[in-house]
Write a structure and sequence with these properties.
This protein has eleven helices and 13 strands. By secondary structure, it is α/β, with parallel strands linked by helices. It has two domains: 2-10 and 269-380, Aspartate Aminotransferase, domain 1, CATH 3.90.1150.10; 15-266, Aspartate Aminotransferase, domain 2 (3-Layer(aba) Sandwich), CATH 3.40.640.10. It has a seven-stranded mixed β-sheet, sandwiched between helices. Strands 9-10-13-12 form a four-stranded antiparallel β-sheet, with helices on one face. The longest helix is centred in the N-terminal third of the chain and has 20 residues, at 38-57. The structure holds pyridoxal-5'-phosphate.
Amino acid sequence: MIYLDNAATTFPKPENVYKAMDTFHRTLGANPGRSGHRMAVAAEKEIEDTRSIVAKLFGIKDSRRLVLTFNATDAINMGIKGLLKPGDHAITTFLEHNAVSRALNGLEKRKMITVTKVRNSQEGFIDPDDIKNAITSKTRLIVVAHAPNVLGTIQPIQEIGRIAREKECIFMVDAAQTAGVCEIDVNEYFIDMLAFTGHKGPLGPTGTGGLYVGERLTLDPWREGGTGFEPASLSQPEELPFKLESGTPNTVGIAGLRAGIGYILSKGVSTIRTHEQNLTNKLIHAFRHDQRFVLYGTTDIIKKVGIISMIVKGFKPAEIGAILDQSFDIAVRPGLHCAPFAHQIMGTFPDGTVRISPGCFNTENDIDQLITALDTIANEKI
Ligand SMILES: Cc1ncc(COP(=O)(O)O)c(C=O)c1O
């Protein structure tokens, strides 16, 4: 199988990720921070070492402000629902994943908050001035995906962050598609909350992720329970990360996440990005001027991550996905990609697009085979 669905989850993982998880499960699989014996202490150390390496990846100075979560959805909900209070206003975009759109929409439907969605350009970019113009005296939160998952277009988050800081709003970045493949520094980009998932760019397993909580905010926990200390107290501890990390963590996944990020740091984020850019650019060049295909969003590879959204004229995206899978042994993702508003704006609702997303283990040969396959399929309709 040629796997080109890395925006959904990266596959395969680096060998050291499999090894770290296997070793952890066989030798250190105790409940961290609970029992006090040596295995539990070693499991706790694995978590703290992971926290430190994630903090390093994102330029986070105090690793205690990095809360480990079960995925980006968990982190985004934790941030949005832990921050917003009745009467608040939030600003977001039409390009967001349902993790953001539904969390905000749910609060809006319960009449707790109001939400403004800012439109993007045809190329797939948000204009920071549009965000600025949407700010009101009630705006508490601005949430933007660093690179939305349908188009992969890298948004001007530093400019948006600067505006948020000037206007005293909290700025949340959904880095689900950029963590591990784009350089991110929470201080340089004025980010107050950074949500990421471990199973995509960070090359870790599913069930891992995190939320950076900046110094300008406090969050109410939406999950309360055991934290491994002060068991007699009925109240949730106030200190981070424990305040937001109740329940037994996914320790084996966290061990894998640490190994994935270790792999990325040893290769270099920019090396991985360049590789994915080269493969994506090859695809763009193959299809861009071919009338049988439509590509969505910018074709400027500097301004996007390794995601292409396209359609093959005469076919529904679901048909292309099925033909590639069954006749060519190639995995891509057809459909709405959990971002229905983006497709409404692009004019691709309700069928969506075919999303192709090369990862760090794909080769030029994989891309050549996909190009040949799509060329063969498209010719059938001529
Ligand atoms: C931009 C974006 N945000 C959030 C998510 C949710 O990630 P997860 O399913 O790992 O929680 C995704 C997943 O595809 C995504 O692409």
